């Protein structure tokens, strides 16, 4: 039951090493949900989709999007700074703040070009692992975090929602500015292209599933934190939530 476990992290709990991996398709709400669980868990937040978007923006600005080798070279040399503070959304390439630019439909339309380039993925996966290793407590979110980037995470969750719910959420996010056909392409079309290189629609072995179709935001947060606790209890016998652990 989503509401049956309340996460009451003690000061000591909040010092322990914790890696939470979250994957899911577009519009599943995983960015805002992951950001909020990072706050609740006293962790930093890594938005790996923002890395792919920043790379797409950079390659487009260099005019190399249609040249796979030049794309790889651009990624090798990119000077990318990404905030991992869950309260600060900031993406900078060189001296240019592209926080807003990477969310534009023009970037959403081309990001799969870089996300489906295997050499680009290898470079970004290495950066993501370094970022995870560099922080004591981190929630990392994307498409291949539970399976490729951090298969040894303390908790791994696939956050899904029905296609209808995801399209409706994306529409609300964009303030009704995108017509229905373009929206369906953004949500389902992009997922179809991206899932040709990573499967983020079915949970991998040992990955927990949270379906938010019928849940509002607070209920989704509850369900996610309950799943983090459940997996920590299973993976770490000394965790306070372990069924046979010391609860004193
Ligand atoms: O989550 P998002 O919409 O910001 O992701 C942007 C793109 O990056 C999307 O096309 C999927 C891709 N992506 C990926 O392939 N692997 C990740 N770990 C994160 C995102």
UniProtKB/TrEMBL annotation:
What positions does the entry give for ATP binding? 24-32
The protein's name in its UniProt record: Cytidylate kinase
What gene name does this entry carry? cmk
Enzyme type, top EC level: transferase
State the organism of origin.
Citricoccus nitrophenolicus
Q: In which compartments does the protein localize?
A: Cytoplasm
Please indicate which superkingdom the organism of origin belongs to.
Answer: Bacteria
Q: What is its EC number?
A: 2.7.4.25
- Which family is annotated? Belongs to the cytidylate kinase family. Type 1 subfamily.
Catalytic activity, as annotated = CMP + ATP = CDP + ADP; dCMP + ATP = dCDP + ADP
Domain Cytidylate kinase, residue spans: 20-228
Q: Which InterPro entries match?
A: Cytidylate_kin (IPR003136), Cytidylate_kinase_dom (IPR011994), P-loop_NTPase (IPR027417)
Q: Which is one GO molecular function term here?
A: kinase activity
Task: State if Disulfide bond is listed as a keyword.
Answer: no
Question: Where this protein primarily resides, as one coarse class?
Answer: cytoplasm
Keywords for this entry?
ATP-binding, Cytoplasm, Kinase, Nucleotide-binding, Transferase
Quote the Pfam families the UniProt record gives: Cytidylate_kin
């Amino acid at each position: 039951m989503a509401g049956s476990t309340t996460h009451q992290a003690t000061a000591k709990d909040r010092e322990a090493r914790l890696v939470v991996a979250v994957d899911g398709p577009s519009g599943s709400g995983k960015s805002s949900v992951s950001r909020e669980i990072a706050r609740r868990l006293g962790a930093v937040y890594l938005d790996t989709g923002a890395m792919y978007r920043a790379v797409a923006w950079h390659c487009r600005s260099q005019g190399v999007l249609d040249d796979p080798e030049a794309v790889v070279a651009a990624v090798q040399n990119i000077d990318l700074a990404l905030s991992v503070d869950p309260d600060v959304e900031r993406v900078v390439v060189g001296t240019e703040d592209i926080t807003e630019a990477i969310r534009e439909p023009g970037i959403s339309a081309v990001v799969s070009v870089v996300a489906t380039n295997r050499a680009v993925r290898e470079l970004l996966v290495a950066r993501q692992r370094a970022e995870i290793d560099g922080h004591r407590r981190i929630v990392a979110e994307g498409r291949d975090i539970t399976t490729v980037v951090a298969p040894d995470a303390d908790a791994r969750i696939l956050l899904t929602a029905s296609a209808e719910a995801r399209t409706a959420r994306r529409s609300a996010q964009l303030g009704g500015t995108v017509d229905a056909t373009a929206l369906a392409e953004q949500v389902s079309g992009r997922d179809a292209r991206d899932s040709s290189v990573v499967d983020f629609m079915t949970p991998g072995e040992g990955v927990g599933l949270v379906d938010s179709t019928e849940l509002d935001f607070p209920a989704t947060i509850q369900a996610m934190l309950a799943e983090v606790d459940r997996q920590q209890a299973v993976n770490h016998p000394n965790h306070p939530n372990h069924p046979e652990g010391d609860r004193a």
